[in-house]
Fold:
Amino acid sequence: MAEVSAEARIEAPAEKVWAQLTDFASYGEWNATHTNFPNGGPAALEAGATFAENMKLMGFPAEVTWTVEELETGRVFAIRGKGPMGVIVGTRYSLAADGGATTVRIDGEFTGAAVSLMAGKLKDSATAALTESLRKLAGLVA
Structure:
């Protein structure tokens, strides 16, 4: 298993950050691993909803079929999906209001046989992507 995380304080209220985070049409503007949603984002943003995403990590394209595992509007959005080569991917976004700002944390995990072969490079690449995503997200909402 490879686990990664990144956290940033964004100078915008949590409601504004949440609105951007759940605006699937604009994912390409801030999410560093996102390529596209071949069928659009989830039809309804609710636990159990599924959607497909084309991504790129470590220079390799991958399609992940996601399921929304946890949703607490304005605070938590967690998804788990199946990627290529039996890799299971989990991503959890959590928001905490901090005055007029918001602390945003992204936690990710990768499990599967293929992960053990490249765990170090995967951690470095995914951590850099999360950090870049938070920087771009902050630029959109601040």
